[in-house]
Amino acid sequence: MVHKHKYDANGKQLCCTLEEKINSKTDKQSGCCTVDYKSEHSDDDGHDHSGGDQTTFQMFLPAIISFILLLVAIGFDNYFPQAWFTGWVRIIWYVVAYVPVGFPVLKEALESIRKGEVFSEFLLMSIATIGAFAIREYPEGVAVMLFYAVGEVFQTLAVQRAKTNIKLLLDQRPDEATVMNGENATVKKAAEISIGEIIQLKPGEKLALDGKLLSDTASFNTAALTGESKPDTKQKGETVLAGMINMNTVVLVEVTIAYTDSKLSKILQMVQEATAKKAPTELFIRKFAKIYTPVVVFLAIGICLIPMLFVENYNFNDWLYRALIFLVISCPCALVISIPLGYFGGIGAASKNGILFKGSNFLDLMASIQVVVMDKTGTLTKGVFKVQKVVAVDIAEADLVKYTAALETKSTHPVGTAIIEYAKGTEKDATVTDVEEIAGLGLKGKVDGKEILAGNVKLMKKFNISYDVEIDTTPFTIIVIAINQKYAGYFLIADEIKEDAKEAIQSLHKINVKTVMLSGDKQAVVDAVAKELNIDQAYGDLLPENKVEKVETLKLQNLKIAFVGDGVNDAPVVALADAGIAMGGLGSDATIETADIVIQNDQPHKIFTAINIGKQTKKIVWQNITMAFVVKGIVLVLGAGGLATMWEAVFADVGVALLAILNAVRIQRMKF
Fold first, then answer.
1. What span, in angstroms and rounded, lies between the C-alpha atoms of 147 and 155?
2. So what's the pLDDT on residue 90?
3. pTM above 0.85, yes or no
4. How distant, in Å, are the alpha carbons of 169, 236, 501 from that of 231?
């Protein structure tokens, strides 16, 4: 068995700390570090296969045994004196009570020393409890280690819960899928299924790989991917993603992306890596603990020995007891566990809401955002052109729609697609001939023998056809129609604003976050959308480099800026902003790669949710830091002055750690 340490980018060792040990337990690993085993790997080669596969009862069992033995011993000492419970019998009893909870910590302390980590939390607890035995304070020695062990179990359970919240989102891919080969169905491992193979998906089953729907229609539950409980109906040819659950009939899906390259795989990798990117607060606490722990050990030695130079009636046992209290109080467990747990909880809470943070550093960053800069199309609007209004002049509206849609079937322009969609098939029985596309103006052709012109106002002017002059003042896209050289009406076409866009802007304003919209669309359209949504500033007619200039101008004002866009076309702005947020991350591989934060559905309101989660996480982390330092500081002074006992020290250490953990897990229960 070869031990392999883990290191960060700067070469700093990351493994075998208390945090790593607890994280490893929750990941059901068999030790605190990555281990390579020889090829002759067998079940009896010396390592524990069960590792972290323990029930909650099994985790608490050593503490339960120790607690019962301690209670009995305290009873014999104080309430039910026994003649035989003296001398070596009493000492051995307390040692037996100590071993279930003390031995693992002593072992960890020795292993840490062997690996060069001398001043660890384990060493502090070991010195304090062995010292308590040395001065015959047996009950307190057992109690300190007992409460420490209980605290560690609670820490493990709390981290486990935070990780479970994330894994509930991520562990959505089934390991197997049913592959169709003609009429034959074969169950294969998902990782072995090739691109182009056909998967059969029964009602209630999860899709294992990304693919293209071959069946005419199907409804999928996408809650695990997007946080949305509303079913998503897909049509033949549309993309379906790993993790989606088929809700009704049996459907067929053609695999288009390999198992390891699926959107869900990329997201899973992203969130797993998120915990490696630490927030500044978390990094500070880690560095602080590395300096703080050895300082505390030397101070404890000083508390024990220096008074003999100044105190007239110096009693070694008395001052050693004070030093031991000082050691117990100073153990930094409350900080080194509760703070990463707070950020863990924040990432988990965000994941449950369909928001993926690429690191806890971005939770901190979002808490301080002052300006949210947004792209228009695809962020605040749906990015899909729709017919908003039809005006028919001297012709039935149904006929106007039919003739125009029939002509537009010969065009690939998205505006034409919107009109065809609006016609709902009424154009199919019309005969279309002599179609001519006039560049930059529109279309000309014959539909059922009638000459149809469909295009912008410039097309009407080209053919000297008079039209309603108020058309010239509208900010939206207008398709004007003429039939047999006579004005027949128009279609008003606009990109539809998302349902929750207005609520999103209102929520941002409530927390004093300024909103700015940047768009390549014409200024009149941008102004209309900004007015409807009450956006603070809006700029149109922008090229990508113009967007960069606008963001640079904002940055000169020393403002913390988040940019929200598609993460692909706006890559330069995403890179420039303090936080890059991608909307609809499941739709774009590049989005997942480039953005700092991915909002998995297209809801603008999630921008506010992301900021809110960042603020709540930061608040909880600083509550824990403040509580730990204040309580420990008070009891440290009392302990050094001989006014606090080992029991107060236990509260200052384990009690504060448990309170901090309970506070940290609150974020997982919050509704955002």
1. 12
2. 92
3. no
4. 17, 16, 21
